[in-house]
Amino acid sequence: MGAPEATNAGPTTGQHLRRNTRSSILLFGITQGLKFLQVPIVIACIQEGYTLVRVAFIFFAYFSIYNFGITTAYVKYTAECHAKNDYERLSRLLSTGMALCAAIGVVTIAVVFLFLDPITGFFHVEPQYYLSARFVLGFIAIVAMVNVVLGGYRAALTGIQRIDVVNNCRLIFSLMEFALVVALLYSGFGIRTVVVVYGISVVGPLFVMPFFLRRYLPAVHINPLRPSREVLGPLFSLGGRMQVLGMLALLVNSFDTLVLLRYEALAFTTAYVVSRALVDRLQAVPVQGFGPLIAASADLHSREEEEKTLRVFASALRLTAVATSYIFAFTAVNSDLVFLGYVGPLEYSSAGSQTLMFLSLAAIIHTCTGPGSSMLRGACKPLLETCFHITTLILFATVFAIGKAMQRPELIVLAFPVAIACASFVFLILANRHFKTPLLCPLTSAFLPIAASFAVAGIIRWGWSLTPFSEEPSRWTIVIGVCCMGVVYTALFAPAAWFLPGLTLQDKDQLVRFVPYGRRVLALFGKDKLI
User: Quick one: which of 81, 129, 131, 370 could link to 86 by a disulfide (CB 3.0–4.6 Å)?
Assistant: First the structure.
């Protein structure tokens, strides 16, 4: 049965990209701000138990990963079918994929509950946390199954570039999660409560998204009880390739935490995990446009607009390089103050601050790979990124084994930053060659902003050492000092970055378009000619 004729008069790819990026930045700014306030509260209430909360997030990702390939297929096929108005085929693809995910999910939960004790006992968890660890594993498995089955609605909205709708739903439930976690922790509840509230915040938006999908794709009818055999081939063919990439990506991003939890003391691991979590949140700042880049790449690839794809990729690289250097130079130079101010005194805090410094340095290179990864995923070409993850695993295992054999904690802390930075550098070269952009475009064109950012951060830290507050400061002195240093750093570097090489006039035009009042602000300084 033919689908209703869709009108072509709608937002362009660029307009979709700007709207989705603004929405992603808003979601990130609010949710990560809440997480920044929430983490010290969680650590103060449950101490080393915070590591179990982080492990819960890791296991959630592990349980969810088996649909990574199918989710990518959802996005690609939604973009293609929407462009061709073939909503009947899209309905069969989504229904079949969701039925397949449900079947695999039921088997996964059965296996998890059957081997719950052996899996929990594999890690060195203290006796007082053992029952909580078992609960975390079982509950997260159930949440992950629901997330995987209903994730087709989220992926379909992404395929038509309505990521803003997905973000708005997530934002509402994130606000609820923050309020409930803080209130319940201060009321005496513990680890299990934090994980339950997190699970609700994950699955809650998924029950709302079907209503929006019906609004934007009224011709699509999803019924997992009526799968279609004829679309299993395309789902497996495309999904299988992306599935390998997803499993590798997840393993790489969590392998260091799981290895440390297996072989190191829980307090040491907690210090490392806190630092890693802080870097992950900071790293999410410059990568908020990467999700929209996947949808935009899928759309451009489906319409064979190669030249526009290359322009989007090159611009995203330059913007990311400047933003990354701005964020992580300050964190790397002031890692000890940032860590102590964020967490307070904690056993093995030196390991945490060292991790923060090394990860911050590695993040400058690693984050620059994000645009390449997103564009390749949108085009469903995972080979380069697969090689990147394999290289990272090999390097991490090598450095960690050396540090463990020599009993050198500093090498153990260095293992993941060294691995991710070296592998990212190689991937960056290969991705630039694949997209036919100038070699190492983001690093060479943004070299001066990166160097200037480190110089400004170093000068500010030198100024801090001259103040009387640098002598045995209290935690609140450090918090206030870091905030003031951050304000000065921003005031000095952010305006300077605008005039340094690294961003073209077109990049600056795109940048101010992301900010609702950017044009008006620039006009006050006589910079309206850029746009």
Answer: 81
